[in-house]
Design goal:
This protein is an all-beta fold. It is built from 2 helices and 21 strands. The strands form 3 sheets. Strands 3, 5, 6, 7, 8, 11, 17, 18, 19 and 21 form a 10-stranded mixed beta sheet that branches. Strands 4, 9, 10, 12, 13, 14, 15, 16 and 20 form a 9-stranded antiparallel beta sheet that branches. The protein has a two-stranded antiparallel ribbon with strand order 1-2. β1 and β2 form a beta hairpin. The radius of gyration is 18 Å and the shape is globular.
Amino acid sequence: MKKKFCRVIFVQLSVIFTLYSCKGNQVIVNVEPIEEEIQDKGGNFVPEGYTKIWEDHFDEATINTANWTPGSLRDLESGDIVPGADGDHLLKEKYSGYVTKDDSYIEDKALVLRNQKRSYKGTSPAGDYEYTSGWVMSMHKVHFNKGYIEMRAQFPSGDKVWPALWLIAEDLVWGPEWDMFEYFGKNTEGNDVMGMHMLVDEWPNQKWSTGYILNFNRDFNCEAWHVYGFEWTEDKAVWSVDGVVKRELLRVDLSSNKAQKWPDEEMYIVFNNEVQTNATDKTTQWPNYLKIDYVEIYQK
């Protein structure tokens, strides 16, 4: 069942609070209390005019399930699953990693999403797997329509890896989609590329606008900490690394069939480390990790 939320989620200190939806329905936002004293590690490159509305700095011992569903593509409370998924633990056959809770955890105050090369018997979809992977999503828990989202992260490197920080439509229909940062150790665009993409319209009529940073690991070092920023407004999308703009997509520059479908709806967060089925496995170290120090959302 589709849920509609007001554009802004207000996070107040030391309380769990109540919002009212745009249609007047009462909505309880299950956000864990934030300590009064916060070490503000984020907000490094926030564009002017934005105010923080939500954050997770992964300071707790375990993943906060008020914010995230770990290790599954199905939201356990609603029973809803990521549209088009092959099962509760695998999105599509182009991914080789069976998603597990074991590979999705907190360590040293960071979210860790691990890829392992190991034999694993899966149940949904059923089968024998050679890899397992970490995944968290905020479906029905944390979602927003336009704003600026900032993440401090370490990506893995190697030809077989396929980690991503992305946004999916909350209404459970595939499309639109923002691939904020999606790393390919090996890709049709070349080896060692960071993708920054927009998908508009709904399945099966999707339309892509793609962009890449070539030689990303060579020039940036995937496994170093970087601040990844993504701004999404009515008129543009901006991707930045450590405050430096790497792609700017203007709505006015798009063809009319894409511009008319510019994303304008609630979208939730997915962070996942994955294994690319069609890539070679010559330079990848196992296990490997996608780590996120914090994620923060800002709106005007």
